């Protein structure tokens, strides 16, 4: 049995930088990966989807080019090229991760599947067919999540796609039925609609992106439908079956029953923790009923010396949160810090076109918690930059404390919504109030300039 100071299981967005940092501090560190270095974000998530979404945006711009007075003679979609371009970008990022780990003295990269064989011992089924046993005082679990497949009658009998398998399809699906109406469904739905599929989205909740305010969800539904996607909210898929032409989904909306047919079906109904294979019963690490590892605010599990990072411990499931998790652990271990996940900011951006940039609380959360707020809201059609560039869909919205003018949250659904949201995120961190932003000088004519106008709406 080889002894290490630290073992990192999974090379996700937190585990990889943590392994390098621990080694630089002189800890003999092993990082174990069962698939590709870099984890979900690089190989199946953010990087490939955003690379392909960029191609779909070009297609959409060409399709509507006459809006800007540019006439063209039509275009064709080369999905094999788009997929190859995506693969090149993924490979570039994956190789970068490999180089970073290999060039760090003190890190041993082990390819294989890890499981606990004892409290602090890890058994690895190596890719080369062998077995290896390692031990360390400190173990960091960063094994992420995988697509959750709901138990719908008939689903297991049809060839369904997930966000992972979909990315390697080299023929555009004629009709794409998507189960789920959140980040993955909307980003991928718009992507394939723009590449030529007839997309149908089925969401059980009464609105798309159910955690968001109703006005935000309504704008998203509107622009998805404007591009041709059919959206079925408050709808349950009761049964799925194979037909000669592809797939049929029996749905019910309220009391209305109907059947949707399509050539392909994508399951985007959330993700489940990748903890089952870890054999956590051999340690004192506790999970919830869904398999998400339970941690305290310092990311310590119930077993001393064992930590969990990223999606494996449950949401928020974002790359930047997994990355921040590793900083919390590292600084608490080595810099005598007392960092916690409790009060950190959780920004996020959904990369539909236009984007949804979000930070802080929503209007409905403020209402639920009885926080006195005022709402600033400005349509993108009132924003000079948006009018000039012809991108007027959506709005900027901020949740402001009614008594103190402190910014509590924002939703920017509009072009560059994520970038504009980040400006408000910085303001929230620095305690800059809505009234200060109202009079701040921004360069003209940026989208950011309209933050003046956004907060002027509070004067009315
Ligand atoms: C389609 C899609 C799009 C996304 N887009 C975005 C986005 O735009 N922005 C954003 O912030 N987030 C996005 N996410 C979410 C983001 O990818 C994850 O939150 C992020 O990757 C964090 O992952 P992680 O560090 O927890 O682990 P992961 O990156 O999932 O890595 C876990 C690693 O552990 C390995 N592993 C698992 N079990 C074992 C084992 N037993 N032994 C050894 N290795 C093991 C896995 O192979 C994997 O490589 C997206 C996700 C998906 C699916
Ligand atoms: N841009 C980004 O940051 C980004 C992009 C993609 C994914 N992600 C991350 O990946 C995670 C997974 O994304 P996701 O969109 O799969 O999951 P999600 O958990 O965000 O949403 C799942 C959706 O599916 C619906 N649903 C559940 N069961 C259903 C069923 N049987 N039929 C129809 N609808 C059903 C839910 O009501 C929910 O709206 C997210 O938590 C997110 O953090 C982030």
Describe the overall structure.
The structure is a single chain. The chain has 460 residues and is an alpha/beta fold. It folds into 3 domains: 2-147 and 272-334, FAD/NAD(P)-binding domain, CATH 3.50.50; 155-269, FAD/NAD(P)-binding domain, CATH 3.50.50.60; 354-459, 2-Layer Sandwich (Enolase-like, domain 1). Helix content is 31%, strand content 27%. It has helices at 15-24, 39-43, 46-63, 79-102, 163-166, 183-195, 214-226, 319-334, 363-368, 384-389, 417-430, 434-438, 450-456; strands at residues 2-9, 29-33, 107-118, 121-126, 131-141, 145-147, 175-179, 198-202, 230-232, 235-243, 246-253, 256-262, 264-267, 271-273, 306-308, 348-350, 355-360, 373-379, 395-401, 407-414. The strands form 5 sheets. The protein has a 5-stranded mixed beta barrel with strand order 1-2-3-4-5. Strands 16-17-20-19-18 form a 5-stranded antiparallel β-sheet, with helices on both faces. Strands 9-8-7-13 form a 4-stranded parallel β-sheet. A hairpin with a 2-residue loop joins strand 11 (246-253) and strand 12. Helix 1 runs parallel beside helix 8 (319-334) and helix 3 runs antiparallel to helix 4. The model has no long low-confidence stretch (mean pLDDT 97). The structure holds flavin-adenine dinucleotide and nicotinamide-adenine-dinucleotide. Flavin-adenine dinucleotide (FAD) binds next to strand 2, helix 2, helix 3, strand 3 and helix 8.
* Strand line-up across the major sheet: 1-2-3-4-5
Kindly identify the CATH topology of the largest domain: FAD/NAD(P)-binding domain
Terminus-to-terminus distance = 71 Å
CATH-assigned homologous superfamily of the largest domain:
FAD/NAD(P)-binding domain
């Amino acid at each position: 049995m080889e002894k290490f100071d630290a073992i990192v299981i999974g090379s996700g967005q937190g585990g990889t930088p943590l392994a390098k940092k621990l080694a630089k501090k002189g800890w003999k560190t092993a990082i174990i990966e069962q698939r590709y270095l870099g984890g979900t974000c690089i190989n199946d998530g953010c990087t490939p989807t955003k690379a392909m979404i960029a191609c779909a945006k070009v297609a959409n711009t060409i399709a509507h080019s006459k809006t800007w007075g540019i006439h063209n003679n039509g275009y064709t979609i080369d999905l094999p090229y788009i997929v190859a371009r995506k693969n090149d970008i993924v490979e570039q990022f994956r190789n970068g991760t490999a180089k970073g780990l290999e060039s760090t003295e003190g890190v041993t990269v082990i390819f294989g599947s890890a499981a606990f064989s004892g409290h602090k011992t890890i058994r690895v089924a190596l890719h080369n067919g062998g077995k290896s046993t390692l031990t360390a005082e400190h173990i960091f679990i960063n094994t992420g999540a995988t697509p959750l497949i709901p138990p719908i009658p008939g689903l297991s009998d049809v060839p369904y796609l997930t966000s992972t398998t979909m990315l390697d399809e080299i023929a555009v699906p004629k009709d794409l039925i998507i189960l789920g109406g959140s980040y993955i469904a909307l980003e991928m739905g718009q992507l394939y609609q723009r590449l030529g599929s007839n997309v149908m989205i089925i969401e059980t909740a009464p609105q798309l992106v159910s955690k968001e305010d109703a006005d935000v969800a309504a704008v998203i539904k509107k622009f998805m439908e404007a591009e041709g996607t059919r959206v079925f909210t408050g709808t349950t898929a009761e049964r799925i079956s194979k037909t000669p032409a592809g797939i049929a989904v029996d749905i019910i909306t309220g009391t209305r029953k109907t059947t949707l047919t399509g050539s392909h079906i994508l399951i985007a109904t959330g993700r489940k923790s990748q903890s089952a294979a870890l054999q956590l019963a051999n340690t004192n690490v506790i999970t919830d009923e869904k398999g998400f590892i339970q941690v305290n605010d310092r990311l310590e599990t119930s077993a001393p010396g064992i930590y969990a990072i990223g999606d494996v411990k449950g949401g928020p499931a974002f790359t930047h949160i997994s990355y921040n998790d590793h900083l919390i652990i590292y600084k608490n271990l080595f810099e005598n810090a007392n960092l916690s996940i409790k009060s950190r900011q959780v920004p996020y951006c959904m990369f539909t076109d236009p984007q949804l940039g979000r930070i802080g609380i929503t209007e409905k959360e403020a209402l639920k918690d009885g926080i006195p707020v005022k709402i600033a809201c400005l349509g993108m059609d009132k924003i000079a930059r948006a009018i000039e560039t012809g991108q007027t869909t959506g709005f900027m919205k901020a949740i402001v404390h009614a008594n103190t003018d402190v910014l509590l949250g924002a939703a920017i659904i509009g072009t560059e919504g994520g970038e504009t949201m980040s400006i408000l995120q910085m303001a929230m961190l620095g305690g800059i109030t809505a009234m200060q932003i109202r009079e701040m000088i921004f360069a003209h004519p940026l989208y950011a300039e309209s933050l003046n106008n956004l907060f002027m709406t509070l004067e009315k």
